[in-house]
Specification:
single chain; alpha+beta; elongated
Amino acid sequence: MYLASNGPMAAMAMTGVLTDPTALGNRDRISAAREILDRTGIVKTERISVQAEPQSMIMFAPKAKHKYEEDEDNGKTPTKNTWRPVVRKSRQIPFGYEADPNDDTILLPIQEQLDALLEAKEYLKTCSYREVSRWFVFYW
């Protein structure tokens, strides 16, 4: 409370130095007034300019080719991962699954998202977590 009541007096002391710059003790008055104004919350605003260089582009290897499985009709066909529905264990639905519209206790897989997770897991063998997360955000 004491500092707050003396804040205006400190501001007046700083302006008084401007009117009489040759008076003795001006340096002490300014430093004392600055301390009082800083402690009361009246401070000089500082502006910081941050400039960053553009980030480099990350190139990933092309998508892995599908493994092939023999088919009776036309020879080779790409195999897809088979994802199965799972039992819901909490209120939150994990990435790659959606709630079954007929049964709230079952989560249905989303093929594209789960395949992307597997691909990201493969990229982690050769890339950093940051690079893979950037790829994943760009991918989705």
